[in-house]
Design a protein that fits this description.
Radius of gyration: 23 Å
Structural class: alpha/beta
Largest sheet: 7 strands, mixed
Number of domains: 3
CATH architecture of the largest domain: 3-Layer(bba) Sandwich
CATH superfamily of the largest domain: FAD/NAD(P)-binding domain
CATH topology of the largest domain: FAD/NAD(P)-binding domain
Distance between the termini: 32 Å
Strand content: 25-35%
Number of helices: 10
Helix content: 10-25%
Oligomer: single chain
Number of strands: 24
CATH class of the largest domain: Alpha Beta
Shape: globular
Bound molecules: NADPH dihydro-nicotinamide-adenine-dinucleotide phosphate
Length: 461
């Protein structure tokens, strides 16, 4: 599914939506069906990955319509596909700044300046860190803010692990990590869990999890990889160490409002202030939806509902001022969205030397030893949301390069030995080889141009 369509710089958009979580995409679905042809800026690096926090969660069991639950990234893929099907234009970039002192509003993005009559801010919130003295040294070498993305890493297998926090995320992640670690310690700074009863009960009933109440992390130690935590218990200020190999943060979020400066009214926590129960912000024509304006409920479904409200309010606001330029649909029923392609694991029988994209260790070995083209290897894991964002981007790069380079996907849960040999300590990790030599390595989601430039440089070498 090709979703990108840039904005023409002289054009004034009816409605620009900033943010690509449930709030942003739901707003887009409503505005697109109202023939407003909204433009949605997905975000890229600031404030977390496109798709929002559901991209780094496993099963969502409380979103209506999915009686058996749905994986967070899959749910976001579906909501996004629905928005695109009805004609939402996407700009896959960060909104760097906006100017609300002029009309139309101006939004500076990595892809240029965009003008808009109305705006919906749905930029969500990002994960907090503890900022321990040696945190940066062990970042991705034992410390992670995403158990769901990194838990399957070989270094965590059958090792003791810890999660900090007492909310739903911490409980969900502690349970998830029991799949990989030998034991999980949940480090809670107070005497109670803030998590919902269902998740808290799962933690308390799990013999593979030990809850440390009134406990604060004060230091991390190790050599190349995290080896120890220094902890303090609040009751008697006793300091003790815990030997383990992984520390996962699940200590809440901050709203992504820095790019707004002081142009909108924000509360003391940085959340956008709206009229009670409504999406209108302090500036006319600017609406807010989802976690960026919601310090309290912060659910996928409440964000989606807020996106719907913001979109309907923006539509009314535009039509009262006769600002909306409606598109005319030639087809009343847009074409159905095609399902995501599933890549089969390559074996001796289905391996193709010239295929653009293959999966598994067999293809990796063959291409590594036999291909003279640049080879992109992406290490993924099944629950990794950022991998969902990245894989289609990498495939597009390879398509654009028309077979001059090839790609292989390695699921680190399936090919554990390969992941270990390649020293992979988180997903997604991307390696670029040429004739058996590692030329570049990246961790996490990067702009498509980063990969393309690196490959093109190898082609001219
Ligand atoms: P929360 O803000 O709910 O919880 C953060 C937790 O981290 C709290 O227990 C807090 O402690 C603790 N904490 C904060 N700062 C520190 C610190 N410096 N040191 C130690 N501990 C700290 O965040 P969540 O990410 O858990 O949840 C966010 C929202 O998403 C919630 O509304 C939640 O319900 C929802 N969610 C739902 C899920 C589901 O239904 N499956 C899964 C994940 C999230 P204290 O309690 O003492 O303040």
């Amino acid at each position: 599914m090709d979703s990108v369509s840039s904005s023409n710089s002289s054009q004034i958009e009816n409605l620009v939506i900033i943010g690509s979580g449930p709030a942003g995409y739901t707003a887009a679905i409503y505005a697109a069906r109202a023939n407003l042809q909204p433009l949605l800026i997905t975000g890229f690096n600031s404030g977390g990955i496109p798709g929002g926090q559901l991209m780094t969660t496993t099963f969502v069991e409380n979103f209506p319509g999915f009686p058996d639950g749905v994986m967070g990234p899959e749910l976001m893929d579906l909501i996004k596909a629905q928005a695109i099907r009805w004609g939402t234009k996407l700009v896959e970039a960060d909104a760097q700044s906006i100017d609300l002192s002029v009309r139309p509003f101006k939004i500076e993005s990595d892809e240029g300046v965009i003008q808009a009559h109305s705006l919906i801010i749905a930029t969500g919130a990002r994960a907090n860190r503890l900022h321990l003295p040696e945190e940066n040294r062990f970042w991705s070498k034992g410390i992670s803010a995403c158990a769901i993305c990194d838990g399957a890493t070989p270094q965590f297998r059958d090792e003791e692990l810890a999660v900090v926090g007492g909310g739903d995320s911490a409980c969900e992640e502690a349970v998830y990590l029991t799949k990989f670690g030998s034991h999980v310690h949940l480090l809670v700074r107070s005497k109670k869990l803030r998590a919902s009863a269902a998740l808290a009960d799962r933690v308390l009933a799990n013999t593979q999890i030990t809850v440390h109440w009134n406990t604060e992390v004060i230091g991390v130690e190790g050599d190349e990889w995290l080896e120890k935590l220094e902890l303090r218990t609040g009751e008697n200020d006793q300091v003790y160490t815990l030997e383990l190999r992984g520390l996962f943060y699940a200590i809440g979020h901050k709203p992504n409002t820095d790019f707004l400066g002081e142009q909108l009214a924000l509360d003391s926590g940085g959340y956008i202030v709206t009229s009670p129960g409504r999406p209108e912000s302090s500036v006319e024509g600017v609406f807010a939806a989802g976690d960026v304006a919601d310090p309290e409920w912060r659910q996928g479904i409440t964000a989606a509902g807020a996106g719907c409200k913001a979109s309907l309010a923006a539509e009314r606001w535009l039509s009262l001022r006769s600002l909306a330029k409606l598109i005319k649909r030639t087809e009343l029923e847009p074409e159905q969205i095609e399902k995501n392609n599933f890549t089969e694991i390559s074996t001796e029988s289905n391996y193709k030397q010239d295929a653009l994209w293959q999966k598994g260790s067999f293809a990796l070995r063959k291409l590594y030893h036999e291909s003279r083209k640049p080879l992109l290897v992406v290490y993924t894991s099944s629950a990794c949301g950022p991998c969902h964002v990245l894989k289609p981007q990498l495939k597009r790069v390879l398509e654009e390069l028309k077979g001059q380079a090839q790609g292989v996907e390695i699921d680190i849960e399936v090919d554990q030995e390969i992941a270990k040999q390649a020293d992979i300590n988180g997903t997604p990790t991307i390696q670029l080889f040429k004739e058996k030599v590692l030329k570049s390595q990246w961790k996490g989601v990067k702009q498509r141009s980063t990969f393309k430039e690196a490959i093109v440089n190898l082609l001219v070498d």
